[in-house]
Amino acid sequence: MAAAFACGGLLALAGVLMQTLFRNPLAEPYLLGVSGGAGLLALLGMAAGLAWPWISLLAFGGSLLALGLAALLGGRLLARDHTPLLLAGVMLAAGFGALIALVLSVAPAERLPGMLFFLMGDLAWTGQPALLWLALLLASGLAWRVAARLDVLQLSPLKAASLGIAVAPTRWMLFTLAGFCTALVVAQAGSIGFVGLMVPHALRRLGLVSHRVLVPAAALAGGSLLVLADALARTVIDPRELPVGVLTALIGVPMMLWLLRKP
């Protein structure tokens, strides 16, 4: 439960930062290919029969590789326009997705269930809740300290620059912080989807616009959602366990559709 709450909080916080960086409610933590890079190296390790600590390290390294490539390919113009970074992330995600499909198609059949659980999110092997909690507290504290800057940047980069806010360093901070939060979660629990997309957007729809309130609220709501999803994943068809990412979508999609119906 401790690990699930921290992972959910980190994903929701990363979603807030990504949506602020790109000024788009559809942005989410895996937009820059982080899950694809992590999944590719992790699946290669699983196919080779490596133990979980090595799989986790490979996943973290794959996440950092994806972030580095996105920054290298699309970060040159981040001070003026975030579109190249967005396009680089989308292309990397597509490329990693194709390579993951290739690995799955040639992997030994007995290793496929574990691979699929990793790709859909699995908290069963998460063994470092203290590390996850430390990262959540530090990342939330840093984001909360620059909340006023994020509020203005969300409205308009030009307005932020006219008020003396350093737009490029702030954007790079958002990119780095969101990337490391996501990389840490993927390395510990695989690719748990939908939390980072749905939770920040839902909170904004409920009127929590100021980042001074949105940041802690997202951490709490994201953590609570993932704890609930993990509990259901372990009990709904007991003694079998479902991938937790399936439950986050099953819980989040109806909630999101209901919010979208509200005026």
Report on this model:
- The protein is mainly α and 263 residues long.
- The chain has a single domain (2-261), classed as ABC transporter involved in vitamin B12 uptake, BtuC (Orthogonal Bundle), CATH 1.10.3470.
- Helices cover 76% and strands 0% of the residues.
- It is built from twelve helices and no strands.
- It has helices spanning 2-22, 34-47, 52-74, 83-106, 112-120, 129-145, 147-155, 157-162, 167-189, 195-205, 211-235, 244-261.
- The chain starts with a helix and ends with a helix.
- The model has no long low-confidence stretch (mean pLDDT 88).
Summarize the entry for a quick read.
The chain is mostly helical and 263 residues long.
Fold-level CATH name: ABC transporter involved in vitamin B12 uptake, BtuC
What is the CATH class name?
Mainly Alpha
Based on Cα principal axes, name the global outline. Answer: globular
Q: Strand tally, please?
A: 0
Q: Strand share of the residues?
A: under 5%
- Proportion of helical residues: over 70%
Order of helices and strands: HHHHHHHHHHHH
